[in-house]
Design goal:
13 helices; five-stranded parallel β-sheet; Rossmann fold; alpha/beta; homotrimer; 41% helix; 11 strands; 2 domains; four-stranded parallel β-sheet; 338 residues
Chain lengths: 338, 338, 338
């Protein structure tokens, strides 16, 4: 059996992806998890984390799996990942040495490594995660990379499934760009379009001109959507995106075409305060529509308190689903090892 | 049953407070702890910790409880706690989103958040802990807040009980202010006066003019003391406070009336080196008297090596009691959940 | 029984040292470890760590032992270790208070504290580890100090034993100094000469003039080697050191005679690029010779990719042995406690 890594959520196909979300809902409803005593995960965080870190430790513990967490640069050496580097600078250790060593101590290796937002070709190659996979002797779990956030994908799917029912095909979902004080990577919106494709949703993405997603990724997502009976549309009118929506995701991101003009983009972003998702706009969606965001969220910048604190907000539920979907995924990954 | 939080140590009344200290001494003597397998604590440290962090993890582990520790700002996002904030600054996430999410992963949430020492009205409201409790869906354990340190309270009580016997009423205890290179919060002295009140001790607090404790807190503590058969007195003569004392606590703190004149207070503090607790002063207490300090302590500034390294120092024993009292308290908190 | 600390790897004599390496290889081959449920380690890291941190947590977990890890200065108070200090500066807590407190929470205390590289007399006394041992009420495990790295010693010995067979006496091993962008402590080369002495290897150390090891340590190692049927030689010709070698260690370090002229040494170091271990030099060793380095390593500065990525590199295997040797050592240390 070839190695099973969890990188973008498509590894088990649309059916397998949704089956994991389904299994998570069963675990949440009280189904006992499988146990894998003696197994171990080493989780490497090159960036901050709250939900991912804690939900992974909680889920693993519930499965009898031991987790060791590393924060290189804080508690361990700063890690170089570029092949062939002459290491006379700030990096004390190379992935080529660190990752195989960690593989000696664990059965599964996990990595968080955000986009650099400097070089589009580099980010597109998901370079840090790719190097990590290259050097890892163990299955790899992506805890959010430059391109993808596949644990969030499962939590989103579980929430969709819980509220919209078993058949997600053709259900109307909106994703609206939002303001933010900083330029952010596009891993989360990339993942939403891909997950929506897997689930066969009718997804409408609204963003201002220049804040486009990577066309390679949207083409791939559109293909998945078409295969599953869904669709992917874009608009620059956030109000229009709300029409008929049963779910509204908000998220900020940098434009794929914005590489090389990040400073200009920051100035543009400062003029886009009217993209904040507020009650007026949210009320254009269906009366039963839910609000979703992966968190952390900048309140009253991305979304107003009134929306996120309302009974229609599914953010805490989705954060909770991070635990159950991590359990479902770890069951799958450890089952394949035994 | 309403939610049981542990905030200032008065939650179970004087009797319940002392019963936990008694239970801790039984655990220390070898009584087997209750077990709560499958339970989990998420502990959020907004400030540094040594004893609290390690004794909590040790105590929880001995009860079969899993602990996940977060250091927001280091390994997770910096957290905003003020309601209604427009989050376009340094804080990436709000308590309103983070704490309910953590509540999805754990059965008990714990927080360390020291005083800001900027605004007396704000600190008096214990704002960060209060916001944490507001947003928490789970029982809350205070790991030291702007106002209180209720785990230290239990450890102090266990040490008092171990050395002074079962009846603490009317026993003479001194708390003396001490020099320090930095302005410190008053959570520990606040807690000592409150705990002494619960236990019915005759407590004498010595401090220089201007280094007063919050009069609201001392009035409350005096009321508790009176009800339990004890008393609370103040003096500006540290030698006089020693007379007849069976226990001597030393601690530095900022004056409650010192808000708004912290720089002036620093200059005054620099002239108060004679408040260091040394052998000469300590020898004015009873020959059997013990020295106590919550630690960490600035040696030869707060107290001399000769005092803290003597056989009369109960600091290591009290630090050890942190483990047994945390176990006793966690037994109480988890019992109420099942 | 007097307290059993693991400080430099000589504590059990040559026979005991090699027996631990042998036990590690048995554990690696599938022998079940002993279990010590309810036992606890507190590990204090004053410096960064990857392998030591993770292999210790993994090994302890496999033995049923709980580990709590502290990073003072990051998640706990900065610790002062000098006796008698007047603590009005940056250090919030003294070893004299912190270490006995940690001893109340754990059965074994572990410390990582690198050399200061400022004062030769101070480093020679291994002052931080020595103070830690002085204040510790529990057995102490050295996770790398100013002078020694005795867990690495066991891993190296397990690798030597695995590749060279049961009798290490008189086997030819080379240790070559290597360039590095920074001045590094000599704990690792100190340990290699001492371990080689215990094992009775014929060790040749090559280093440029001025990058000498502490003569007290090399004299002690030479004595051990002589007693075990081995030898210790020095040369300033790295090529010559390869002749007949079955194992080649590379490592950078500062000269013991370089104290007081570190800036000058940095300038000299910059001219020593030809000391990088490359294929040409490595090929002078035996065709079956293995390459070893404790890691982290500066690639293409200390050693070229071609050497460390070759089939002759034993670095990952040795890193893996860190887990099994830590298990073997913890079995020994916890067995002595019960």
């Amino acid at each position: 059996m070839s190695r099973f890594d969890w990188i973008d959520g498509t590894e088990l196909g649309a059916e397998g992806f949704l089956a994991l979300a389904e299994r998570a809902l069963a675990l949440r409803a009280g189904s006992g998890p499988r146990r894998f005593p003696g197994k171990r995960i080493v989780a490497v965080f090159l960036n901050s984390s709250l939900r991912t870190r804690v939900s992974l430790e909680a889920a693993a513990n519930d499965l009898g799996v031991h987790v060791v967490t590393l924060n290189p640069g804080a508690d361990a050496w700063k890690l170089e990942w570029r092949a062939g580097a002459r290491m006379d600078g700030e990096y004390a250790e190379h992935f080529a040495d660190a990752i195989p060593a960690l593989g000696e101590y664990a059965d599964l290796l996990a990595l968080r490594a955000f986009a650099g937002l400097k070089d589009p070709a580099e980010d597109r190659a998901d370079p840090v995660l790719s190097a990590f996979r290259h050097w890892s002797p163990r299955p790899v779990l992506n805890l959010e990379s430059a391109l993808w956030h596949p644990l969030q994908a499962l939590a989103d799917a579980a929430t969709w499934r819980h509220h919209l029912g078993p058949d997600l095909r053709g259900r109307k979902v909106a994703l609206t760009w939002a303001p933010h004080p900083r330029a952010l990577p596009a891993a989360v919106p990339n993942q939403i379009v891909l997950s929506a494709g897997l689930a066969g949703l009718d997804l409408t993405v609204a963003h201002p001109p220049g804040f486009d997603l990577d066309p390679e990724i949207t083409a791939r997502a559109a293909g998945l959507a078409a295969a599953a009976g869904g669709s992917l549309r874009f608009t620059d009118d956030p109000d229009q995106a709300m029409d008929g929506a049963e779910v509204v995701h908000a998220k900020s991101w940098s434009g794929f075409s914005g590489y090389g003009r990040r400073e200009e983009e920051a100035a543009v972003r400062a003029t886009l305060g009217h993209w904040t998702l507020d009650q007026t706009r949210f009320s254009r969606a269906r009366p039963t529509a839910g609000f979703m965001h992966c968190l952390p969220v900048r309140r009253n910048v991305v979304v107003t308190d009134a929306v996120i604190d309302s009974a229609r907000s599914w953010t805490t539920e989705t954060a909770g689903n991070r635990r159950w979907t991590a359990m479902a995924l770890l069951e799958e990954m450890f089952s394949r090892m035994s």
